[in-house]
Structures are given as C-alpha cells and as structure tokens.
Amino acid sequence: MQRINESDKLKNILDSVRDFPPIPQTAFKVVKILENPDYHVTDLVYCVSKDMGLTTEILRLANSALYSPSSKISTIKQAITYLGMNTVKNLVISLSSKALFGSGNLRLLEQKLWEHSLTVAIGARLAALKVKPSLAEECFIIGLLHDLGQLILAKEVSSYETIVQDAYNKMLDLRQMENDTLGFDHTDVGGLALEKWGMPEHLTDVVRWHHQPDRSKYKDLAHLICFANNLTKSKLIGINNHHDTEKFQNSMKYLGIVPEDADELETALMDIYGKEKELFKI
After folding, report:
1. Amino acid 103: pLDDT
2. pLDDT tens across 244-273, in order?
3. Is residue 152 within 8 Å of residue 159, measured between CB atoms?
4. How far apart are CA 109 and CA 232, in angstroms?
C-alpha cells in the first residue's frame, strides 16, 4: 500500500469516524478536581461515590488479587488510603472508559475488547512492578485505553467487524488490515480520541505508538504495553491474536526481561485472569 502523509491520514479518520465519544463525565470531573492545587480528598470521594457503577468497579478491583489488600476495602475513602490518590485517579479515568463498552450492538466484540484491554493493563502493571515500579499505575491506565481506537472503529465504521473477522480467521495483523482497508489504524484513532479528551501527552503518545514502541517519546511505557499486549495475544485473549514474536522479544530485551521473568509474569497474569472472572465482564 502507498504510504499516506499524516494530514491525509487525519482526513481519512475524520471522514470515517463521525463521532468520537466524549470523555466520561466522572473522569472529566475528577481531572478538574485534581487540577485545583487546593483540592481536598473529600471532593474526590464525593465525586466518585455519586457514580455507583464506577464505585463498584473500583472497589471490586481494589479487593482483587491485583492489589491483594490485607482487609476488605468497602469505601472509596478506604481505597484512597490504601491505594493512594494517584492510583485511584488512574482507576477512575481508566475504569470510566468501561462505560463505552457494551453500549452498542456489537456486544461480543466489545466483550472481547474489554477482556483484552484489562488483561493487557494487568500484565503491563505486573511487568512494570518487576522492572520499572514507578510506572506501574500509569501502565494500568494505558493498558485499559490502548485499544480505544478499536472500540471507536467498531461503533463508527460499518465495515470494521468484517475487517476484524478476516484478521481473526486468517491470523493476520489487524493493524495492517486496517491500514490497507481504511488508510489508518486503531492506534491513530485512539491517540486522536485521547487528544480530544485532553488527556496527558504520555497517554496519547503511548496509545499511538504501542505497536511501535521505539517511536514513542515514552519508550519505557510503550515497551511495557507492547510486551503485555503480545503476551496477552499469545494467550488468545481478545479479537486479534496475531502474536508478534519479534516485537515481544524486542520489548523483553529493551526492558531487561529474561525468559524466566516472562514465564513468571505469564503465570501471575493467568492466575489473576482465572481468579477474577467478574472483572472481565462488561
């Protein structure tokens, strides 16, 4: 396929995608609260607690094997105390995105996307705890949002389900099929959506380059997501299981993850995946 420039690519996206979803309201409010240097924790507790669905998701995750609290966490205030303000903020933003899943007619596709996104988020967090602990929570939020572009395309482009089905049946690279058919791919769309939401640059950048981590300004984060993404695909979790061994090994090398570490991370990830089935439902 002939390479197209970025302005043509953007035009193709905007011609194909009629409506980008707005940032979920609770996430928007939380971001605004935290922008105020004089905010109080009670402001955050009040804001999140009004969203019962989101509160349930945060408490479910906080009590899961992912965080393994010593005693049950039953309120948002307890979650903030145990997990920290930044982690809860990230959970609010990323878990708010779950409202976008299961809201259309492609429920099976959306279920598979959510399952894959959450598994990548957990896998990236586990990998970061091993090699770059300070990036663990950022990895979780980016992992949940990394395939936002696929969700938008599924809702907005009528031919997308066929593209996904062909890629799945033939075990082909979905990104390549998207580019061949549409002239852009889901990383372009996801990055643009997060930009429209006003998300921080490191989120939009890593979502844009998680398949090409060496092109990212935030290579550590991008390689962690690339590693977790390919690990998850190798376990056949998601809508496209084209596992890129070369990229997987390249990210392992960059991060200093040896095969024994990768095996250990895979075991830990699949243990959580097996135990926390409720987390993976939309």
Report:
1. 59
2. 899 999 999 999 999 999 999 999 999 998
3. no
4. 16
Helix, strand, coil tally for the chain in percent (to 5): 75, 0, 25
User: Which residue type is seen at 107?
Assistant: R
pTM given for the model: 0.84
Is the alpha carbon torsion for 234, 240, 246, 252 positive or negative?
negative
Query: Which pairs with CB-CB distance under 8 Å and at least 24 residues apart come from 86-92?
Result: 86/137, 87/137, 88/44, 88/48, 88/58, 89/30, 89/34, 89/44, 90/137, 90/138, 90/140, 90/141, 91/57, 91/58, 91/61, 91/62, 91/140, 91/141, 92/26, 92/27, 92/30, 92/48, 92/54, 92/58
Domains of the chain listed by start with CATH number: 19-100 (no CATH), 103-282 (1.10.3210.10)
pLDDT in the model for residue 195? 86
Percent of the chain whose pLDDT exceeds 70: 92
Residues 105/276, Cβ–Cβ less than 8 Å: no
